[in-house]
Amino acid sequence: MNESYLQQTYPFTLPELPYASNALEPSIDSRTMEIHHGKHHAGYVTKLNSALESTLDLQSKTIRELLLNPRTLPDDVRQSIINNGGGHINHALYWRSMSANAGMEPTGQLFTAINDTFGDFSSFIEKFTEVSILRFGSGWAWLSVEEDGSNMMVHSTANQDSPLSEHRIPILGLDLWEHAYYLNYQNRRNDYIAAWWNVVDWKSVAERFAPLRS
Ligand code: MN
After folding, report:
1. Measured in angstroms, how far is the CA atom of residue 116 from the centroid of ligand 1?
2. Are 68 and 166 in contact (CB under 8 A)?
3. Cα–ligand 1 centroid distance for 207 (angstroms)
4. How do the domains of the chain map onto residue ranges?
5. For the chain, N or C: smaller number of CB within 10 Å?
6. CA 91 to ligand 1 center in whole angstroms
7. Each residue of 104-121: pLDDT tens digit?
């Protein structure tokens, strides 16, 4: 999945998981994956389509265009598009940010950019982990690039707010909602954050990064 997933338009569909629901065990258990994907993500897709069903002039907009300037959206569907459009595209990235055969470190151009931005790879991990821990309540942690490809940064958004609305392109995303970890980790969100690094698919992150720098 590269940045083309940002070009999808109404009607939106739930993407299939790119691996079996138990593929990320023990970091993320099968039951959590099934509910998270089949219920939570599916719910965002359904509600996003409902919001757009009667808003004909928005149906040809890509998900990126819908989320780029939420202030310009009609009042009656604005918050639903922020919540459910963000919910849809954030999760689409989350599933693709992980895999069973995850490499431990990025390579190539991505590795160089991370080192240039954060000093070294372990400093990046520390920074991302810190931002994740500091997110109060529901939200996300991100590794993003400015939409013109110029800068890389770690940041966080609340609720289902998308980095696209901050004019940033996310290339790696960590879901910090309780529904992402509660069955297995209960209140131990920090343990979920630590375990998540074991399943981060740096190859897919690199595939999203490359076209932004070319
Ligand atoms: Mn989620």
Report:
1. 31
2. no
3. 23
4. 29-96, 108-213
5. C
6. 6
7. 789 899 999 999 999 999
Classify the phi-psi angles of 15: left when phi > 0, otherwise alpha if psi is within -120 to 50, otherwise beta.
beta
| Distance from Cα 214 to the centre of ligand 1, integer Å | 31
Q: pLDDT digit string (tens) for 86-97?
A: 999 999 999 999
User: Ligand 1 mean position to 94 CA, how many Å?
Assistant: 8
Residues 25-46 have pLDDT tens digits of: 999 999 999 999 999 999 999 9
Question: Measured between alpha carbons, how far is 211 from 179 in angstroms, rounded to an integer?
Answer: 32
Answer CATH for 108-213 from 3.40.1190.20, 3.55.40.20, 3.90.230.10, 3.40.630.30: 3.55.40.20
CATH code at 29-96 = 1.10.287.990
Q: Residue 196 Cα, ligand 1 centroid: separation in angstroms?
A: 14
- Amino acid identity for residue 44 in this structure: Y
* C-alpha 146 – ligand 1 centre gap (Å): 24
Q: Is 65 exposed, middle or buried (0-12, 13-18, 19+ CB in 10 A)?
A: middle
Tell me how far the alpha carbon of residue 40 lies from the centroid of ligand 1, in angstroms: 6
Residue 1 has pLDDT above 50, yes or no: no
Q: How far does residue 139's CA lie from ligand 1's centre (Å)?
A: 9
